[in-house]
Amino acid sequence: MSSLLANATGHEVPLSFLLLPSLTNTYGALLISTFLALALYGLTVNQTYRYYRLFGNSDITFHRLLVPAILVTDTFHSATIIHTCYHYLVENYFNPSALLVASWSIQFMPLSTGLVVLLCQSFYTRRIFLIDRRFRWIVAIIVVMMLAELGIFIGTTVSAFKVTTFEEFALAYMWLNSACFGAATIIDLVLMIVFLVVLRSSKTAFRSTKKGLDSLAVYAVIATLMITALTLPAMISTIVSKGTFVYLALAIPTTKIYTNGVLAFLNVRPDLAENSVPLRTMTSGVSTIKRTFGGSDGTGTSRSGEVSSAPVVDFRMLSASRDDSASGTDDGMGPDGPSAKTPAGVMGQHMVV
């Protein structure tokens, strides 16, 4: 069959021009999604910078490894979407037939997305395990689901490299994309429900600590609802709009929301501690501290040598432990954290009330 067809003027045009998809719901949707995703990536970089300014090397090992891992994988994801737009809309702007062939960057996109999603979901899963060990069996189920989710993402990436055109992938492997979004949606919903139940059922003798836990519960629900509000439509679009990139347009910014949700969760801890868990100095059983006037040398005595007996609440935070304790005291936000238990050796220093 000839690859050329005659148009109305009698001139022959390539057959590939007649097979090109609409740019509005394919590369147009991908381009707009990339703009939004890169704006969110800038927020990710800012959140990472803020994390290191707040904690430096004082945070627990898990968090100090998780944050750079999230940044690296999210950067790789951003690189794939940038290259995708450049490859199709700039490098091959006068080669329409290239729009039908998958590039390496778009073939790697399922893997780059999956790595970010797994890292962020592991953070929330670990929080549930540390806060309430009664939900260990639910955590075990979530971990199994996450491993299955990782396998689906890897399988989708491998399948993408087996085909050449988007049409071939849509006919043979589009169900894998549906499975990816379906698995992510189910895990996020389970995390949202369990996280809310665990935090709201936490028992604590301190009203201020309960207020802080409620704040975290509300934050977790909002974060997971925002993610689910995008992953669920993305899964539906893989079924009803197979010949478009609508599912990619929804999935790309969702990946950035995952990363920003975790980083914001980490960075908000000092604010919650200051607003909800005040600290008080106790020395030899005396539960008041001395307010100093005219400056202080850090010992409770002013530079002029005068001491005031006016009590004041000190809101400085205890330094974070460097050890990843299995008792939930590693980050101070669980029921067994510093709000419920004071580490040995702090008498005469700041203690949580």
TrEMBL record:
Record bears the keyword Transmembrane: yes
InterPro entries in UniProt: DUF6534
Residue ranges occupied by any DUF6534 domain in the UniProt entry: 185-269
Positions of region (Disordered): 321-353
Pfam family, one: DUF6534
Transmembrane segment boundaries: 26-44, 65-89, 101-125, 137-161, 173-198, 218-239, 245-266
Keywords attached to this entry: Membrane, Transmembrane, Transmembrane helix
PANTHER family tied to this protein: CHROMOSOME 1, WHOLE GENOME SHOTGUN SEQUENCE, DUF6534 DOMAIN-CONTAINING PROTEIN
Protein name: DUF6534 domain-containing protein
Organism of derivation: Lentinus tigrinus ALCF2SS1-6
